[in-house]
User: Fold [Citrate [pro-3S]-lyase] ligase from Clostridium tarantellae.
Amino acid sequence: MEYLNFTKNIIENSRDIELKKVDRFLKLQGLIFDFHVDYTTVLYDAGRIIATGSFKKNILKCIAVSEEYKGLNLTNKIVSELINEQFRRGYSHLFIYTKPKNTEVFKSLGFYEVERAMDKVVLFENIKNGIKKYCEKLIKESSKNKGKNIAAIVANCNPFTLGHKYLIENAAKENDLVHVFVLWEDESIFSNEDRYRLVEEGTSHLKNVLIHKAEDYIISNATFPSYFLKKSSDAVTLHALLDINIFSTYIAKALNIKRRYIGQEPFCEVTKEYNNIMKEVLPFNGIEVIEIPRLSINGEVVSATKVRTLLKQGSLKEIKKLVPPSTYSFLVSNFLKRKCV
Assistant:
């Protein structure tokens, strides 16, 4: 295929050998390639890569043009092609994060700035005031619940355990209102809808707890791209700050959240680092971070990871000790139907 006088290649197979060349090209541009993208377009001049761009679901990423080919409108062409393909796949709400020096380029392509971190990364979306509309939705969901002391919890709940219940109950005792945000990207063993329903059922006895869908604005691939996390500790810090800035600037302000509850993290280094950054940054934004020791049963920390492991082993008796009755009923039904996780 021809693109001006350049050759174009579309890659949709993550094992395509050509992706290693894209990786090397991006490293020269100071970027890290995500080998788990769904779609990549590459431009060549005489067999040499001069521009590329990719996406994963509704996130545009890994976009770069060789320095000597800038000024030829190649960024616009790459991004336009990615947008057209995403629309064809049914994605209309798109995100992109980039370096601040590219701000004007993406503004000219119809993207709007959401937030930035350390003046090193900027998050854009293609819906004007999309984050504000999300906050308006949260306010509407909370319209019947008022209080002076308002807290928040963000959790994946994959699945909902007695540990999650313990954390939420502690927050509910100490506050007038608790907003629980369930992570919404479908990247977990259990679907977002199943996880959301299990949290609802497991906290139905707590009348001052509201459950929300985190959507794209809280610990998602848009705000906290997972493919950076195993590459560089600096990237973990940068994207944690981006996510925390969005939470502080928009969500906490809209809901008057003054506290954020977290569980101690004994296992995952990325989550531990994220928690440490929260404890350092959020107080400067008027939000107290309260860390609760993890619930332990018979000397062992309760975790969703442990539950998933036991489910794979078929150890339903052991699972019953770690989850609420509603989660146990769901897991037994799910396990019997599929025989595996």
Remarks:
- The radius of gyration is 22 Å.
- The first strand starts at residue 2 and ends at 3.
- The chain has two domains: 7-92, 131-337.
- Residues 182 and 213 are 5 Å apart (CA to CA).
